[in-house]
Amino acid sequence: MAGTNPLQFIQQVRSEVAKVVWPTRREVVLTTVMVFILATLTAIFFALVDLAIRGGLQAVLGFFG
Predict the structure, then answer these.
(1) Does 49 reside within a domain?
(2) Which of 23, 58, 60, 65 could make an SS bond with 27 (beta carbons 3.0 to 4.6 A apart)?
(3) What's this model's pTM, rounded to 2 decimal places?
(4) CA–CA separation, 43 vs 36, rounded Å?
């Protein structure tokens, strides 16, 4: 593996960072809101599944107990 000197490395890093397309503030806000909405919907879904499983187990155990 050929080594590069620190100055060349820094120049290469700067040229690669210049190629990055940074998101706008609006895009960041929208994706953040979408993450919170989807996390909330997922939490509600799993809470409902948990309640259904708990109710089913209580019914089965009540029937046999």
Answers:
(1) yes
(2) 23
(3) 0.67
(4) 10
Q: Are 42 and 49 in contact (CB under 8 A)?
A: no
SS3 65: coil
Number of structural domains the chain divides into: 1
Range of the domain at 45: 22-64
Per-residue pLDDT of the chain (65 residues; tens, 9 = 90+): 567 789 999 999 999 999 999 999 999 999 999 999 999 999 999 999 999 999 999 999 998 87
For residue 5 the two structure tokens come to 């000197």
Q: ∠ CA 7-12-13 to the nearest 5 degrees?
A: 100
